[in-house]
Design a protein that fits this description.
single chain, alpha/beta, 226 residues, five-stranded parallel sheet, 10 helices
C-alpha cells in the first residue's frame, strides 16, 4: 500500500499502539480546533484534557517516525482565535483548516442525526481566520466551496454522500464499493485546488510493513470472519 493515514481525536491512542503499528503508518492526523481548552469543550471536543493528549501525540509521532498532521474545523467558536503560537509549537507537516460545512440531510437541522447550524460562519469570517494564519508553512485552507464534492464521505449507513448534489448512494454493504462509486459526484478540479495530492509517505519505510488486514481487523475492531 502506497500510504496509510489515520485521522483521530487521539483520546484512545497510547504509546503501546505506536510500538505495535507505527511501522505501518505514514501519517497521523489529529483534530485540534482550539488551543483554549474551554473552547474545545464548547465545541464538544474532549472534557478538558484534549490539548494534553494532542501535544503528547505530536511527540509520539516524531519519536516513531510518523508524519504529524493537524485538522482544524473553523467554526463559530474559533474563527477569531489566533492559533499561530500553538501550531508553531507542535510544527505539523500539514495543517488543514476546514470551513465548517453544512451537508443537506446529514447535519443541517434538528431532524438529522447531527445539527451543525450553531457552528456555521460566513465566508468573510472564514477568510479572516485564513488571513491570520496563511503565513504558516503548513497551512492548507479548505473553504466549504472547495471541499464540498472533493471528498469521498461515508455516512453511518456506509453510503457515499453526494453533499446536496443528489441523493446518497446505496450502501457499500449492499452493492459493494465499485457500484456505489459509479453514483458518486466527484469534483476533480477542487480536489486539485485543495492540494489533494501531496507528499503522503514518510521518509523511510520499514521493511516488511505489509499489514495483514485479515488479522488486524478482527482483533482490533471485533469483526467476525465469515
Amino acid at each position: 500500500m502506497e500510504s496509510v493515514s489515520i485521522v483521530t481525536n487521539g483520546s484512545l491512542v497510547k504509546e503501546k499502539w505506536f510500538e505495535e503499528y507505527a511501522g505501518y503508518l505514514d501519517i497521523m492526523a489529529v483534530s485540534c480546533d482550539s488551543f483554549d481548552e474551554s473552547t474545545n469543550m464548547s465545541i464538544g471536543r474532549g472534557k478538558g484534557n484534549h490539548l494534553e493528549t494532542f501535544a503528547n501525540l505530536s511527540k509520539l509521532c516524531r519519536k516513531y517516525n510518523v508524519k504529524f498532521k493537524v485538522n482544524t474545523v473553523v467554526c463559530r467558536y474559533n474563527f477569531d482565535e489566533d492559533m499561530n503560537a500553538g501550531i508553531e509549537k507542535v510544527a505539523p507537516f500539514r495543517w488543514k483548516c476546514f470551513q465548517v460545512l453544512i451537508v443537506p440531510d446529514e447535519n443541517d437541522s434538528s431532524a438529522t442525526l447531527r445539527d451543525a447550524q450553531r457552528f456555521k460562519i460566513s465566508d468573510d469570517e472564514y477568510r479572516s481566520f485564513c488571513d491570520r494564519h496563511e503565513h504558516q508553512q503548513s497551512f492548507v485552507p479548505e473553504s466549504k466551496q472547495v471541499m464540498k464534492s472533493s471528498y469521498l464521505i461515508l455516512d453511518e449507513y456506509m453510503r457515499f454522500l453526494n453533499k446536496g448534489v443528489k441523493e446518497a448512494t446505496q450502501s457499500i454493504l449492499e452493492v459493494g464499493v465499485p457500484a456505489a462509486m459509479d453514483d458518486v459526484y466527484w469534483d476533480d478540479e477542487n480536489f486539485a485546488r485543495r492540494g489533494g495530492e501531496y507528499d503522503w509517505q514518510k521518509e523511510q519505510k520499514k521493511e516488511n510493513t505489509e499489514l495483514d488486514f485479515q488479522t488486524f481487523l478482527p482483533v482490533r475492531f471485533g469483526i467476525q470472519r465469515s
